[in-house]
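Customer escalation, tier 2.

The customer says the design service returned an amino acid string that "doesn't look like it belongs to this structure." They asked us to rerun it and document both sides in this ticket. The original structure tokens are below, unchanged.
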């Protein structure tokens, strides 16, 4: 297992990502990450706030095609 620090565009800060030996993400260490659903609580909250909050959240990330609440790391 490896621990890496990666930038989270939702928080605007760095989070810790735990990967296995094949670089598959095993866990995201972040206070807003929901382990059960593998979703970001901030993204989930923003998506339930109406169309304007969804637009602003996606614009802040620079991604208009992604509507998922999952934490994604390249």
């Amino acid at each position: 297992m490896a621990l890496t620090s990666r930038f989270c565009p939702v928080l605007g800060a760095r989070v810790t990502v735990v990967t296995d030996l094949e670089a598959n993400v095993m866990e995201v260490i972040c206070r807003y990450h929901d382990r059960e659903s593998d979703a970001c609580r901030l993204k989930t909250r923003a998506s339930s706030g109406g169309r304007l909050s969804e637009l602003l959240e996606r614009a802040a990330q620079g991604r208009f095609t992604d509507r998922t609440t999952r934490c994604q790391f390249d």
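Tier 2 assessment: The sequence is consistent with the input. The mean pLDDT is 76. The CA atoms of residues 58 and 67 lie 8 Å apart. Sent an explanation to the customer and offered a walkthrough call.
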